[in-house]
Amino acid sequence: MSTMLPEWAAHRARGMMVIMLLLGAAFAVGHHFFYRSLSGKPPPSIIYFGGFAGGLTGQQVNLAVGSAFAFSVNSALGAAITTAADQAFWTAIRTKSSRLEVVDNLPTATTNVWSIFDFRLWKKSLTRMVLATIFWLLCVTSFITPATLNVGWSVVKSKSIARVPQVDFTSLNFANIEGEGDLTPTFVYSNPQYPVLQAVAGSTTGGQILPISSPHQNATWLLEFDGPALSCQEIDKESALYEDFTNNILITMVAGGKSGTYYPCMRSFGYISWVPTADIDTGVISPLPFPHPPWIAPPLPGMARGDMQGCADTINGSVSFLRSALDQIANMTITRCITYNTSYLANFTYINGIQSVELATKGSFNNVTGLSFVRGAGPFEKRGIGSRSPIYNIHAIETFAYQAVMDAFGRMFVGVIAYEYPPGNEDRKPAHTNDTQMMLTPLLGTADYSFLQSLDMGSSVGGIGSLLESVEDGGTPWNGYSVLQTLNSTLPVASVIEELFRNATISLMSMPLLRPNYSSPYAPPDVAMTLTAYSIIYSYAARTLWLAYGIAIGMTLLSILLGFVSIYYNDGFSYMTKFSTILRIAYCIDLSEPVRPEDTDGKDPTPRYIGNLTISFPPTGKTGRYEKAAVVSEEEQL
């Protein structure tokens, strides 16, 4: 008596494969839409299950959901592939007799990855092994697809008009101008005000632009404004001006030390910086560093002729400088700087509050001449012809401001570094004179001033040199080492000074008192600013996800096609690997010899002889009891 099964039950493998394919595709679509809903959004800060082991962050939940989708897709497609592989398995073992060892290992191809490398299984059922290989490669998608959602930086730029830090040279906070007189007020330039001194000193000492506050942490703007700059160049050694300088310095070197006709070397200069001076009585401006050297001075007490190295002598009533003096100024370079008005181009960039300024100057409008004073009750006011409203002298105010900046900058460099024999020094030990702040600036790192690094007297009269020199010469034992000074030999002094002044000018913006008062009619306009917003957001690579899922679905379709072909060779019937299926089919198999009673418990390991048994199955639809299988060759058994 037989029972007719409904068609859907007889072909449930086909239905299983199709349903699992559709379910896997549905999970893939769900995975895509879930990631797309997160794309471009920041990771959530919410905490789930906070009372349990610290809880789960929203980021962790999203990653877990993505992994769950990938697992579901892999499971559904894997079920379709294993179903197809089962049909190929039953087709393979029904076609011809096989050794039981081969039949034993063939079903494990989808549960044991190492079975893929068993050549006998490939020879027995190529279709089954191809499907098993596809099944194992399908697992790769579960690693790739969750990684298509990443967390990265999002950069959004926007433009706006804003007030940025600027410098206002029409401000009265630059120069200190003192008032004098009663009937006719006179306002005399005195010195730079403290904000100017602070900005210039800080920038020049550090060798860079001071930090300037930005309205936003991440912003960029281009600022163009007029301001003072320095133009520096070396004086030609063949010029008359250079000769005047050298003669003036030579005279100062021997001043105050005359003894008879002999002039000893009273001082030696390593550095001199000065500004032109005007004679109070005559008003004549002198460019010399020492306009009034002390020629007339008594000889030092106890000093006799020949005690010191000679610098000059008197021959026929005129002073003749000796080689010892001329050698000291033989390699002297003199740099001359003038202030001029120019246009600054400053490109400010702030990234997370870190400042970067690209600075350039364009053009030279006019040289800046200092203004000593202004006089009158309204020194900055003048009226045009036929004009009722006053016209103000902006140029004078700006000149005072430029003058204050240059004055503050000059105070960092003006002065002298020298060795000299002061009056009353009985031991005749030269004293070191350093009355300039140049040593605090990057100018000291140039090759021209490398000799100033050491402040000792070396092997001068009465001295034994510095400890550093003594250690380097081997005179004082010491097993330590000191860092050697690295000199910037590529930049000339003139370029260094010009850059320091430009940096100092921009650094004025760091002082609030030197910025514009926007109630003033001379306040500069607002500036176009580019704002950059950085945020952490999800980034979804949809193309990568669909490439992985597309390959997986395509290989699954191929697997289903092979499964359908296997069902065709199984006379249109489908099979599962359930225990009941195996039990029913095993009832009708033929073995080359019966299994011994003591081995019917099925425990491991399988006896060797069982693996070598030949097994054959009756054609589909036929039933019967165990029969002894025909003995066939080993190649046929495979």
What this model shows, in words?
This protein is an alpha+beta fold and about 650 residues long. The protein folds into 3 domains: about 5-150 and about 540-575; about 165-235 and about 335-525, no CATH class; about 240-330, no CATH class. About 35% of the residues lie in helices and about 20% in strands. The strands form 8 sheets. A 5-stranded antiparallel sheet has the order 4-21-7-14-15. Strands 3-23-22-24 form a 4-stranded mixed sheet. A hairpin with an 8-residue loop joins strand 17 (about 380) and strand 18 (about 390).
Short description:
The chain is an alpha+beta fold.
Q: What count of structural domains?
A: 3
Rounded to an integer in angstroms, the radius of gyration calculated over CA atoms is 48 Å
Shape: elongated
SS class: alpha+beta
Please tag this protein with its features.
638 residues, alpha+beta, 3 domains, five-stranded antiparallel beta sheet, 24 strands, 22% strand, transmembrane helix
Fold topology:
Blueprint: H1 7-10, H2 12-38, E1 47-48, E2 56-57, H3 58-95, E3 98-99, H4 100-105, H5 119-124, H6 126-137, H7 141-144, E4 149-162, E5 175-180, E6 186-192, H8 194-206, E7 219-234, H9 240-254, E8 262-264, E9 267-273, E10 277-278, E11 285-286, E12 310-315, E13 318-321, H10 323-328, E14 335-351, E15 354-367, E16 373-375, E17 381-382, E18 391-392, H11 394-410, E19 415-420, E20 431-434, H12 467-472, H13 493-507, E21 527-540, H14 542-569, H15 579-586, E22 590-591, H16 608-611, E23 614-616, E24 627-628, H17 634-637
Parallel strand pairs: 22-24
Antiparallel strand pairs: 1-2, 3-23, 4-21, 5-6, 6-16, 7-14, 7-21, 8-12, 9-19, 10-11, 12-13, 14-15, 17-18, 19-20, 22-23
